Amino acid sequence: MINLLPDTKNIITNWMRYKGVVGVISSFVLGGYILAAAGSAGWWLFLTRQDEAVKAEIESLTSQIIDLKGTETAVRVVDERVGVVN
């Protein structure tokens, strides 16, 4: 007679032998994935905040340029008037 069914007792014995090792390896792999996901999220957050800071600095410098442009115009007008008086 041909037995096509696997020997379940042997399979269970082999599984019990490797169960602890498989659990430890699986835990390390899962921990690695969690660490990689946390690192990726942290890097994304860092880049987003850095981009926002750069945009705020650009806006601040643009407003300073506009203010200085007005001041420069006033100084040029005063300089022309002084030149006319001299």
Annotate the secondary structure layout.
Layout: H1 8-85
Short description:
The chain has one helix spanning 8-85.
Structural descriptors:
86 residues, mainly alpha, 1 helix, transmembrane
Describe this structure in words.
Helix content is 91%, strand content 0%. With 86 residues, the protein is an all-alpha fold. The longest helix is centred in the middle third of the chain and has 78 residues, at 8-85. It is rod-shaped. Keywords: Membrane, Transmembrane, Transmembrane helix.
Mean pLDDT: 89
Q: Could you give the count of β-strands?
A: 0
Helix content: over 70%
Tell me the span between the first and last alpha carbons.
Answer: 125 Å
The major pleated sheet works out as: none
Stretches where pLDDT is under 50 for at least 5 consecutive residues are none
Computed over alpha carbons, the radius of gyration is 36 Å
Shape by Cα distribution: rod-shaped
Strand content: under 5%
Label the structural class: mainly alpha
Order of SSEs? H
The count of helical stretches stands at: 1
